[in-house]
Amino acid sequence: MPKLLAIAYKTVKRGPMNEVLCANVTQLSGVEKDVFGRPGKRQVTVLSKLQWQQACHSIEADLPWTTRRANLLVDDLVFSCADVGKHLHIGELRLEITGETDPCKKMEIAHVGLEAALTPDWRGGVTCRVLNDAMIHLGDEITLVNPS
Q1: How far is it, in rounded angstroms, from Cα 4 to Cα 127?
Q2: What is the pTM of this model?
């Protein structure tokens, strides 16, 4: 069963990523304290460990997942366009996948070739809207479901 491997947030644009063991995630602020958590289609970003590893392998680099600047890192999931509209359940939290997290120039600044490595096959992760308020913890079980 897929699990939540890591949680991170940034308090200012271009600021450092702060990793935590648990986080309160709300409809009002996304991952608590994250500068980009306001309501909308991109409240929380989720990265697949497998897809991150594929991107790093393609540029022969061993980079920490926080280089991607996503909020959540999950294992045993691979995201694609078929997942838009599905719900990602992380413990008690419910997220709606709203789209792809497009890689930007910040990725190229972080490591040469990273922007291009994240571009194919949704390797950059997904954007999500928060559907309910909940506390999440490392190790929480994850399911990806079609909404009923």
Answers
A1: 16
A2: 0.96
